[in-house]
Amino acid sequence: MDNSIWSLMDIIFVGAGAYMLYAWILMKKTGEIKTSMLLSKEIDIRKCKDLEGYKSFIAPKMLVFGFTSLVYGGYGLVNSYVFPMPMQVYWIVMALFFAVLIWFAVQSRKGVEMFW
């Protein structure tokens, strides 16, 4: 794959991580849930059985996913534009990111099952 494609993907991961952390901060400070990041369009937030419980459940998971996405994308950008890093470390960071991505998806679904 062309290096510019990888760089674009890294920028997307950094943006997704930053947005997830923004959504986490917003939820902690104002209580607002950015549903576009967490829930499918079919789920009505007003039908949640325990909104505060859901926030408590999903908040630490948002933080872990946002931070991991930011680190993975940032690592890729540093590797592409600042100085090359060992590929073994890149593969470890990538595997960690995808493990966290799958974990977050499973936990998000579990949260919907528990609170809706």
How would you summarize this macromolecular structure in one to three sentences?
The protein has 116 residues and is an all-alpha fold. 79% of the residues lie in helices and 0% in strands. The chain contains 4 helices and no strands.
Walkthrough of the structure:
The protein has 116 residues and is mainly alpha-helical. It has four helices and no strands. The protein has helices at residues 3-30, 35-38, 51-81, 87-115. Helix 1 (3-30) packs antiparallel against helix 3. It is elongated and about 50 Å long. The model has no long low-confidence stretch (mean pLDDT 92).
What coarse outline follows from CA principal-axis ratios? elongated
Residues in β-strands, percent: under 5%
Radius of gyration: 16 Å
The SSE order reads HHHH
Structural class estimated from helices and strands: mainly alpha
The count of DSSP E runs of length 2 or more, i.e. the number of strands, is 0
Distance between the termini: 42 Å
Total helical elements? 4
Name the poorly predicted regions: none
Overall mean pLDDT score? 92
Can you give the helix content as a percent range?
Answer: over 70%
Major sheet summary line: none
